[in-house]
Write a structure and sequence with these properties.
The structure is a single chain. The protein has one domain: Roll (Nuclear Transport Factor 2, Chain: A). The chain is globular, with a radius of gyration of 16 Å. It contains 3 helices and 6 strands. The chain is of the alpha+beta class. The protein has a 6-stranded mixed sheet with strand order 2-1-6-5-4-3, covered by helices on one side.
Length: 152
């Protein structure tokens, strides 16, 4: 199977967003591997979305309840690593507000989305707390768990 190109991976992200804006669960789900995961910041009310169908149905619900409309504002794709990052805006007309953030995409060998990690622009929490994705295995993935020693 040939490796997906940057243009193909970008097209998958655009198709996903078009499916979300159309509130078309089948179109959304077709962009994902069946066992895909969409992570959100810890404490986000919707929690983690799991599975292609679960992701699709969750966004269709957002359109119905919030009037959601999304834009892709910036996109960078690394085909060799099968990764991409985007900057987006999520408009919520029924609440008269919008949310901005970034997402990191991991693609399968078939060029379908395996994982999305969403990061929001947000104010500091009170009381102060760590800001990270809920349900994401930072330690297992090799992320730093303590600050490195530095000379100051």
């Amino acid at each position: 199977m040939p490796k997906p190109t940057a243009a193909e991976l970008e097209a998958t992200i655009w198709e996903y967003f078009h499916g979300c804006n159309a509130a078309d669960a089948d179109r959304i789900a077709a962009c994902f591997e069946p066992d895909a995961v969409h992570y959100f910041p810890a404490g986000a009310p919707q929690g983690t979305f799991k599975g292609a169908r679960g992701i699709a149905e969750s966004w269709v619900r957002a359109v119905a309840t919030l009037g959601s409309v999304w834009t892709i504002d910036r996109i960078i794709v690394d085909a060799a690593k099968r990764e991409a990052v985007i900057e987006w805006t999520h408009f919520k007309p029924k609440q008269n507000l919008h949310l901005r953030g970034d997402e990191w995409y991991i693609f399968s060998e078939r060029g379908l989305i395996k994982e999305i990690r969403a990061y929001y622009g947000c104010p500091p929490a009170q009381p102060p707390r760590t800001h990270e994705l809920g349900d994401f295995d930072y330690k297992g993935r090799g992320y730093a768990m303590v600050p490195p020693k530095v000379n100051r």
